[in-house]
Amino acid sequence: MTRINLGHLAILLLFVLAVISAAAQAQAPQTPALLLGTAWYPEQWPESRWDADLTLMQQAGIHMVRVGEFAWSRMEPSEGQYDLDWLDHALAAAAKHGIVTVIGTPSAAPPAWLTQKYPETLRTKEDGRKDQHGNRQQFNWANPKYRELARAMAEQLAKRFGHNPYVVGWQIDNEYAEVSFDAETKAQFQQWLKNRYGTLDNLNTRWTTSYWSETYFDWNQVPIQVGYGNPGLLLSWMRFVSDTWRSYQKNQLEVIRTNADPRQFITTNMMGWFDGYDHYTVAQDLDLAAWDDYVGQGHLDPVRNGATHDLTRGLKGKHFWVMETQPGGVNWAAINTWLDKGEVRAMAWHDIGHGADTVSYWQWRSALNGQEQYHGTLLGPDGTPDPLYPEIVQIGHEFEKASPVLAGTSVKSEVAILHSYDSRWAIQWQKHNKNYDPVNEILSYYGPLRAEAQSVDVVPPTASLSGYKLVVAPGLNVVSESIAQNLMQYVKGGGHLVLGQRSAMKDDDNGLWPQRQPGPLADMLGGRVEQYYALVDAVPVDGKWGKGESLLWAELLSANGSDIEVLMRYGKSNGWLDGQPAAITRKVGKGRITYIGAWLDPTTMAGAAKWMTEISGVKAALGPVPEGVEVNPRYGAKGAVYVLVNFAKDPQTVTLPGAMQDVLNGRTTKAVTLAHYGVAVVAAAK
Ligand code: GAL
Questions:
Q1: Measured between alpha carbons, how far is 186 from 665 in angstroms, rounded to an integer?
Q2: Nearest C-alpha to atom 5 of ligand 1 is from which residue?
Q3: What does the alpha-carbon distance between residue 305 and residue 251 come to, in Å, rounded to a whole number?
Q4: Helix/strand/coil (H, E, C) string of 621-646?
Q5: What are the residues whose beta carbons fall under 8 Å from the beta carbon of 576, sequence distance 6 or more?
Q6: If phi over 0 gives left and psi between -120 and 50 gives alpha, with beta otherwise, what is residue 49?
Q7: What is the pLDDT of residue 23?
Q8: How far apart are CA 201 and CA 209, in angstroms?
Q9: Which residues contact 228 (CB under 8 A, 6 or more apart)?
Q10: Does residue 36 line the site of ligand 1, with CB under 6 A?
Q11: Does residue 645 contact residue 633 with C-beta atoms inside 8 Å?
Q12: What angle do CA 112, 113, 119 make, to 5 degrees?
């Protein structure tokens, strides 16, 4: 009898394992660089139906499904009894149709047995009442027991699917939003304050608690305040909320990382301008940023939506996913209007142009019962395509066609807009003019700057800025010492910093800087805000950017020095402002600092944007295009690829700088004509 050599046996075993794993890898569907996807809920349908759904997806060029994010009761029907076989079948069935999967961890929808057995895991609302089962997001994000159970569930998923070749990534939870006001969370907040401030003396000083006898003698006296309260306390609570979402996410993220292949990314689906937590805090642990892009009532606003993409791209400084978007309409707006024919396609390409690599529709088909029966879908309740389906088919096939050209490309911009949650919160809590919306302020700058430069980044004020020719900070209200240093470094390095109204008023604790605005930057500016005025009636402005108006807000500026240029002045209004500076600029070495104290009307702002870009040497990425046509450049090894979308009502012709490849129709051309909502993808001719 031959003696079995253990060494040989081990080698043989390794070989067999390698073959098996190679076979498994070989089965992973090859997907295009641009992925079209949909949210699919196989748990809501009999398995016998799945193949019909997946066939229709495949026909539409859908290559990705996101599954599982609300399926906890199906995955763990009783405590510790996990059932993931159905999900395994669903992934395999999808793969047969060339479709890969993103698995959502189901912690946004805990099962009834869980909250019944552990009522402490239910969140407490602001009014002190406990949330209950029957909707979603009823959990307490700070509760240790909830975290333990959510982690155990995520661990089961990761162990089962962490090496599954069909799984490309993970979404943790779903749209973090609701927090809890229970006593235990309050105690955690007080501990958080202790860690940040060290001593009560320090906290009392920074929050100026001698005001209204707010002084704290014990950490456990500090309340939770939201909306109205001491500005230092309000900001601290939001920072605690953000850190707690980060640790909530980390709790699941770690267990996935430990058990999953590194090729599987981890993300969560964020919500654009939603300000319930600091997205920069939460995004730092993710591999990829993703957001849910819904229009709601009305039509796609390319400025607002484009800026939201750029905001999301700025979270990780790279391409991102549109994890959810509306297939036509939603069910939660005041009037759930439907997007026009062709608009869904225009929106998909607009997403790609701004740096999305995936566009995924929510949802494939509605559950027959449940809260969202009226939401837009791709299939009707009868399981056959909706009228929108052919448009989705077109997008799917275009994504496949354009994928080789857009693979590996990314967005690069010469202009950055600075955005911070601290500043937005600080303004929201003390608007001073009920119509003052910090996001609208950002957009009032973004729109015309985007039109001039054809590409803009939205980044936090802590970002490295030296690569930008122009950095604009509208309403950067909260400026810490280190942010001020970062901004001044940028100017000293030759950059042009533009501060918009309400900038640099507050310090890192949301206290007033003892210097007038722009606080620590005032010396560099050589001017300051003498007084701010909330406006009912617009105030005239006049100067380098034309004749126009200041809306909502006017800051009276002073300029102290002959090297300071007054760019705009206020006209006759309240006497105080009459003839006074509204915008000033100063050259500082090779750099420049500008301050705009007025909320400029759109036409004057367009003039300002033209001046800002010209003086900073910023060039339009493609060159002049007709109004209403949006240019979206993405750059790769083979040069620039431009996604052009026509939002104007009439057809528009774009003359290209030379002969280029029209990627979607395969021709070489020197000009493209785009119908209303028309799209073209043009690249250097082959
Ligand atoms: C999102 C959510 C989805 C779905 C969708 C409807 O906010 O993540 O689960 O409810 O809205 O528009």
A1: 60
A2: 362
A3: 32
A4: CCCCCCCCEEEEEEEECCEEEEEEEE
A5: 531, 533, 556
A6: alpha
A7: 46
A8: 10
A9: 429
A10: no
A11: no
A12: 85
DSSP letter at 71 equals: -
270 lines ligand 1 (CB under 6 A): no
Query: For the segment 41-72, what is each residue's pLDDT rounded down to a tens digit?
Result: 999 999 999 999 999 999 999 999 999 999 99
Ligand 1 atom with the smallest distance to the CA of 69 is 9
Using one digit for the tens of pLDDT, what is the confidence trace for 119-144?
A: 999 999 999 999 999 999 999 999 99
When pLDDT is cut at 50, 70 and 90, the band that residue 685 belongs to is confident
Quick one: which atom of ligand 1 is closest to the CA of 330?
12
- Ligand 1 touching residue 324 (CB < 6 A): yes
pLDDT at 5 (0 to 100): 60
Distance separating alpha carbons of residues 649 and 451, to the nearest angstrom: 17
Structure tokens at 282: 């939460």
Place of tokens 């609570």: 237
Q: How far apart are CA 582 and CA 589, in angstroms?
A: 23
Average of per-residue pLDDT values in the chain:
96
Q: Which residue's alpha carbon is at the smallest distance from atom 10 of ligand 1? A: 372
pLDDT at 26: 43
Between CA 76 and CA 154 the distance in angstroms is 11
Residue 18 has pLDDT above 70, yes or no: no
Identity of the amino acid at 354: H
**Half-sphere exposure of residue 563: CA atoms within 13 angstroms, side-chain side:** 10
Residue type, 332: W
pLDDT in tens, 280-335: 999 999 999 999 999 999 999 999 999 999 999 999 999 999 999 999 999 999 99
Q: Give the C-alpha separation, 165 to 462, whole Å.
A: 38
pLDDT at res. 2: 43
Local structure of 172: helix, strand or coil:
coil
183 DSSP 8-state letter: H
Nearest CA to 150 out of 196, 193, 103, 108 is that of 108
Euclidean distance between CA atoms 674 and 648, whole angstroms: 9
The whole-number pLDDT of residue 29 equals 87
Ligand 1 atom with the shortest distance to the CA of 175? 8
Q: Whose CA is nearest to atom 3 of ligand 1?
A: 362
Question: Do you find a cis peptide bond into 363, omega within 30 degrees of 0?
Answer: yes
- What number does the ligand 1 atom closest to the CA of 174 have? 8
Rounded distance between C-alpha atoms, residue 303 and residue 295, angstroms: 12
- With CA atoms as reference, report the closest residue to 411 among 85, 636, 159: 636
Give the relative orientation of helices 421-429 and 438-453 as an angle to the nearest 10 degrees: 140
Chain centroid to Cα 461, Å, comes to 16
